User: What shape does this take?
Amino acid sequence: MKWLVVSAVLLLLTACESSAPQAVPPVTNVSATSGAGGGAVLDARGIGAVRLGMTVAELEATGEVGGDVTRPEFSCSIRELKTARGWVGLQDGVVVEIRVEAGGRTPEGLRIGDSRARMHEVYPGVEQYPHGFIRQLDAETGYKFFFENAGDTLTGIGLVRADRGCLT
Assistant: This one.
C-alpha cells in the first residue's frame, strides 16, 4: 500500500511539473532592423524607423526614442535610442547624428566589440580623424567608428550628416 501512495505522489508531482507554466522570454519584433547575425542594423539612412533628417515630430512618432539625455559634452539636443543602446542627436530640430554603443551593426556586418583590424577589413577606405575613423557613404552622410578607452575594440558606430555633429 505504501508503495502505491508513493507512486501516486510521484505521478502527481511529475504531472504538475510538466504542466507548470514555463518562463519564456518576451519576443520583440525586430525584423525591420535586424538581419542575419542579429543586432539592430545602422545603415546609410538610419536605424529602425529613425532616419537622419527627420524632424522632432517625425522622430517622436516612430516610438523608437526616449527622453532627453543631453549632457555638457554634446553640442546638440540628445535623445535616448530604444532600438539599440545609443542616442540620436538633434540640431535645429532635425536629426543630424545617430550613435549606437551596443546591440548594433552595419549592413556589412561590423559590430560593436569588433577589432580595429576587422573595421579596416570591412571598410578599407576609412580615414582617421581626431576622435576615431570616418567613412563617407555619400556627399551628405558618413559612418564614424569609435574606439573610446578600449584600445582596439570598437565601442561606437555613428551615422552623421557630413556638415554636422553633436560631440563638442
In short: The radius of gyration is 23 Å. Residues 1-36 have pLDDT under 50 and may be disordered. The first strand starts at residue 40 and ends at 41. The CA atoms of residues 124 and 135 lie 9 Å apart.
